[in-house]
Specification:
Number of domains: 2
Strand order of the largest sheet: 1-2-3
Low-confidence stretches: 1-8
Radius of gyration: 19 Å
Number of strands: 3
Largest sheet: 3 strands, antiparallel
Shape: elongated
Strand content: 5-15%
Oligomer: single chain
């Protein structure tokens, strides 16, 4: 599993159900698009334009739950080889995916 670099995929709401009255469709469409804009704004503020993680070749000195890392598994393999791992509340590195 390789890390992905680049822009995060934004949430894009689908169209409201066609069987709703036109006024309800407009309202729902406006609200979902407003929520999508707020989500994208928050994601950009928290993570910038990328969620890519640099590969780690050694465990973090002081891991804390919740922590997610990407390991190259060359000199540090917390379990199942290269990939993303989550440090859970039990102190265990758990593979993601």
């Amino acid at each position: 599993m390789k890390p992905t670099r680049g822009a995060t995929a934004p949430y894009k709401p689908g169209p409201p159900p066609a069987d709703l009255p036109a006024s309800a469709q407009r309202y729902l469409d406006d609200e979902l698009n407003r929520i999508a804009g707020l989500l994208q704004s928050q994601m950009s503020m928290l993570f910038g334009d990328s969620l890519g993680l640099s590969p780690m070749s050694a465990p973090p000195a002081n891991p804390k739950s919740p922590m997610i890392v990407y390991t190259d598994a060359v000199t540090w393999d917390p379990g199942t080889g290269e990939g993303y791992y989550y440090f859970n509340s039990h102190g265990v590195w758990t593979p993601l995916g």
